[in-house]
Design brief:
The complex is a heterodimer. Chain A is of the alpha/beta class. Chain A has 17 helices and 19 strands. In chain A, helix 14 packs across helix 16. Chain B contains eight helices and seven strands, in the order E-H-H-E-H-E-H-E-H-E-E-E-H-H-H. The mean pLDDT of chain B is 97. The chains are: A alpha/beta, B alpha/beta.
Chain lengths: 470, 191
């Protein structure tokens, strides 16, 4: 234990190790960044700034690029000629040019490593315990599942990292979220994080780094941990972290960018120290027994407007934001959502677009058909996820049910590429945001887990997945 | 970036809590490779209906909103996505400051880097401003005070470094580049 033997949290250990210049009252800390992920939507203006100032990229070897946000997830002429695709094509070609000029590795459409930036980082083993990871995307918090300090930044900061491999940062506060108990059948990591956001609120984590800990979190797979950390930003926290353990190390072993041989042994020794010390103090603590959690579903226009799937929409109590949300969603205070008609089901995104998510949904849907009138998109989070899913026949389960099986990308989560929910339609979506218009102008989103989405696809109604899973 | 010393303007009030960056600028307008001209899409789905017609009932479409540089917003303004297009759009629309009781973390950071001043005030001041749209206020960044129409001055917090950058109208890039030796040394020691 360093720093005068003062017990430290996981966050403090990672933070301290990356201080190039410590913060003072006058100046924020200069924090070193180990991994910078970039994509087509939030990087072009940063490259323009660099080019104008005649700056080079300090560490192209610590920078990885992919295309995900605005690219089509369908490979046909009509899709490639759509307005959305043409606009996206300009951004994609800007990224191609920038990566070529500055010597950055790019996993573009057609490359087997392409995919949603927060799916491919872990899958390649580029995301590792104790690293600082940033990206011009708020869901960078996903990578915290490995005990990395990972957070979303703006485009100006993308430029700072490109030019200096550093960021100016004030040290955030820490919040421990201690979990106990076991999730019941049909209840997943998505339900857990939605329940947490419901409790602390969409602004409850502002200024904090969350550390998820305790038995319920330790029992989760890496993919489930990523789902939890992914939505930390939906509670206002820039980052969420989970201490690495054998589950983490087993996941990373043998990945293309993970250390190997002697270096693996050395890394493992360091990674095992990345746990909060026994008496480490957090600025805030919060505990939750997960045993009684039900599948969760959102009813409003932010992820904090969430309830158990068999619950009722809350009463207004003079809350103008809730009134506005329910007006938009065309829901009434006190209404139940079970059996509410559903038009669209979206399975995918950096929250729930990994192999285990597709498996869970497919297990519910195997041998069955979508309900009449329901449209379903199943969008793998990366080309590697797509390939693995196809190897075990998951694509056939979705296609035979009548769903659309797509190429990897952000797709209907951000609806930039033409994959949209129609105006006034209701969607059950495994993505992360139910904001007004997020999935297309006038779209109405119910956020839920992959099994809840699969159940809705089969019944055409909001359905308690516990009815369908054993 | 334009430097900020004082901002004197009438306010326009958007009272809802948790206004997210997808409202400030919907994702379908993010396919640009430039940061210019995004003001026309600011609050697009609240300003315009599906046919592109102006929604006259929306506060930013009303005559009183014309020329207002100060937006008084509900708690936790700017939550959600990290898109810097949000402050770019608000600045291009004409805003220079946002007043609230809380401003979401990434949005606040992005705003500060572009000369859009986040002003976080206490609940009572905020409530009064929400209840009195259109009042003339003066924000003094040198003093970090917000002057209300009755002459009262309310302090607000701004990070010391961000304040200097805003007063001078400079980006933090220059400062980071000046730490070159420390960065090289850091890389050498940890290698």
């Amino acid at each position: 234990m360093k720093a005068g033997n003062k017990p430290r949290t996981l966050f403090e250990k990672v933070w301290d190790k990356h201080l190039v210049v410590p913060e003072t009252a006058e100046v924020p800390a200069v924090l070193y960044i180990d991994l910078h992920l970039i994509h087509e939507v939030t990087s072009p203006q940063a490259f323009s700034v660099l080019r104008r100032a005649g700056l080079r990229i300090r560490r192209p070897d610590l920078t990885l690029a992919t295309t995900d946000h605005s690219i089509p997830t369908i490979r046909d002429i009509a899709a490639e000629r759509s307005t959305a695709a043409l606009a996206a094509a300009r951004q994609v070609s800007a990224l191609q040019d920038n990566c070529k000029e500055f010597g950055i590795e790019l996993y573009d459409v057609g490359n087997e490593r392409q995919g949603i930036v927060h799916v491919i980082g872990p899958e390649l083993g580029a995301t590792q315990p104790g690293k600082t990871v940033v990206c011009g995307d708020s869901h960078t918090s996903t990578h915290g599942a490995f005990g990395a300090l990972a957070f979303g930044i703006g485009t100006t900061e993308v430029g700072h990292v490109l030019a200096t491999q550093c960021l100016l940062q004030r040290r955030p506060k820490t919040m421990a979220i201690s979990t106990s108990g076991r999730l019941a059948a049909g209840v997943s990591a998505k339900d857990l994080i939605l329940a947490i956001i419901g409790k602390i609120g969409v602004g409850g984590g502002t200024g904090f780094v969350l550390e998820y800990r305790g038995d319920a979190v330790s029992a989760l797979s890496m993919e489930a941990r990523m789902t939890v950390c992914n939505m930390s930003i939906e509670a206002g926290a820039r980052a969420g972290m989970i201490a690495p353990d054998d589950t983490t190390f087993d996941y990373l072993a043998g990945r293309p960018m993970a250390p190997s041989g002697k270096q693996w042994e050395r890394s493992l020794k360091n990674w095992r120290r990345l746990v909060s010390d026994q008496d480490a103090r957090y600025d805030r603590e919060f505990s939750l027994d997960v045993s009684s959690l039900a599948p969760m579903i959102t009813y409003g226009t932010n992820p904090g407007m969430v309830m158990p799937i068999d619950g009722s929409v809350p009463l207004l109590n003079g809350d103008p934001a809730l009134r506005k949300a329910l007006d938009y969603m065309r829901l009434s205070p006190g209404e139940r959502l079970l059996d509410k008609r559903v038009d669209v089901v979206f399975l995918g995104s950096c929250t729930n677009g990994r192999l285990s998510d597709l498996r869970e949904a497919a297990a519910v849907m195997r041998g069955q058909r979508l309900a009449d009138g329901v449209r379903m998109l199943a969008v793998p989070g990366s080309q590697a996820v797509k390939k693995a899913a196809e190897a075990e026949g998951l694509d056939k389960v979705f296609i035979e049910a009548g769903a659309e099986w797509r190429e990897a990308g952000c797709s209907m989560c951000i609806a930039m590429n033409g994959d949209q929910v129609g105006e006034g339609q209701y969607a059950v979506s495994t993505s992360n945001r139910n904001f007004e218009g997020r999935q297309g102008p006038g779209s109405r989103t119910f956020l839920a887990s992959p099994v809840t989405a699969a159940a809705a696809a089969l019944t055409g109604r909001v359905t308690d997945p516990r009815r369908l899973v054993s | 970036m334009q430097s900020i010393k004082t901002i004197r303007s009438r306010t326009v009030v958007l009272p809802y809590a948790d206004v997210d960056t997808d409202q400030i600028i919907p994702a379908r307008f993010l396919t640009t490779t430039s940061r210019e001209g995004l003001g026309e899409h600011a609050f697009s789905d609240w300003r315009f209906d599906a046919e592109g017609k102006s929604r006259s009932e929306f506060v930013l479409n009303q005559p009183g909103a014309q020329g207002c540089q100060v937006l008084v917003a509900g708690h936790n303004f700017g939550c959600g996505s990290s898109r810097e297009h949000a402050p770019w759009a608000l600045l291009d629309f004409g805003f220079r400051a946002i007043i609230s009781t809380e401003i979401a973390d990434i949005f606040r950071s992005n705003a500060l880097k572009n000369g859009l001043l986040p002003v976080v005030v206490d609940k009572d001041t905020h409530l009064w401003l929400l209840d009195n749209p259109g009042v003339e206020v003066e924000i003094d960044l040198q003093q970090t005070t917000l002057k209300l129409p009755n002459g009262a001055r309310v302090g607000f917090p701004v990070d010391a470094f961000a304040r200097v950058c805003l007063l001078k109208g400079v980006d933090a890039m220059g400062y980071l580049l000046s730490k070159q030796d420390e960065i090289v040394n850091f890389e050498r020691v940890r290698a």
